[in-house]
Amino acid sequence: MQLKNSYYYFTSVLSTEVCQKIIDLGLNKLDNLEKQGEDTYGVTSGRLEKQSLDSLKPINEKSNEEIKSTGKNYYHRDSKICWLSDKWIFETLAPYIYEANKAAGWNFDLDYHEQIQFSVYNKNQFYGWHFDGAQDHFSKIKRYIPGITNITMQKDGRLPFSHSQNNKLVGKVRKLSMTVNLNNSNNYEGGDLKFDLGPHSPGNRYQVCEESKKQGSIIVFPSFIPHQVTPVEKGTRYSLVLWSSGNPLR
Question: SS3 for 196?
Fold first, then answer.
């Protein structure tokens, strides 16, 4: 799908104080989860993350399909995450989702927002090429009913991808993705948000999102657009991710 606007941005709209407050909340929650023995690593479709493939090599520029075609095992995600459900954070971010949806000309029907993901990327950590969700009816979230749904749970006890026990999410697909840069880009190097805008995109197909680098900046984009976070070369990158869902396109 070709779009006039592949992403929409708001530069430095969250204050330093708000960003630091979110960072403190996220780090505190990660610390508590780890003290309880909980897994805080981000997971991927196909289980291609570091904690599953720790003895293997990292890969950054290759997509899932390219990794599989090599016949070798690589990991292409290495980061820590936790989930934030603080109402004030959502109320701060939500207006930017709706403004971007209208101003960019997408006008997607949105009726549900998932929990907010807080992500930490330390030195050498990254997230390779991926997209957050497709838009067709084959991709909609299916209901999971314990003891009835005939699927295999993941080894860590999590539900398989594309299944949920959340009734508000069942039957929906991710339509828009939001990412928020929480810390000053002077405090880290690398860790760039990068888009694959497709072979027919004018200019550079693989585009670093320069607009995301300033602290408190927000980027909103359709969830089907491939993107990545390049390896952090120095320091630590903190970010938020939020997905807005709705019925499949028709």
Answer: strand
| Model pLDDT for residues 146-200, shown as the tens digit of each residue | 777 777 666 555 666 677 778 888 889 999 999 999 999 889 999 999 999 888 8
Does residue 210 have a pLDDT over 60?
yes
Q: Which of 198, 239, 247, 195 is nearest to 217 (CA)?
A: 239
Distance CA 172, CA 141 (A): 6
Please report, for the chain, the start and end positions of each structural domain, with discontinuous segments joined by +: 8-246
pTM equals: 0.91
Residue 189 C-alpha from the chain's centroid: 20
Return d(Cα 176, Cα 192) in angstroms, integer.
19
What value does the CA radius of gyration of the chain take, rounded to a whole number of Å? 18
Q: Choose between 22 and 46: higher pLDDT.
A: 22
Helices (H), the chain: 16-35, 64-70, 87-103
| 223, burial (CB in 10 Å: exposed 0-12, middle 13-18, buried 19+) | buried
Beta-bridge partners for 237: 121
Length of the chain: 250
Dihedral pair phi/psi, residue 193, rounded to 5°: -75, 125
Q: Looking up tokens 């880290």, which residue turns up?
A: 188
CATH architecture for residues 8-246 = Sandwich (2.60)
Between 145 and 25, the more confident residue is 25
Would you give the DSSP letter of residue 168? Answer: T
- Mark out the alpha helices in 36-174 (DSSP H runs): 64-70, 87-103
Structure tokens at 181: 């840069």
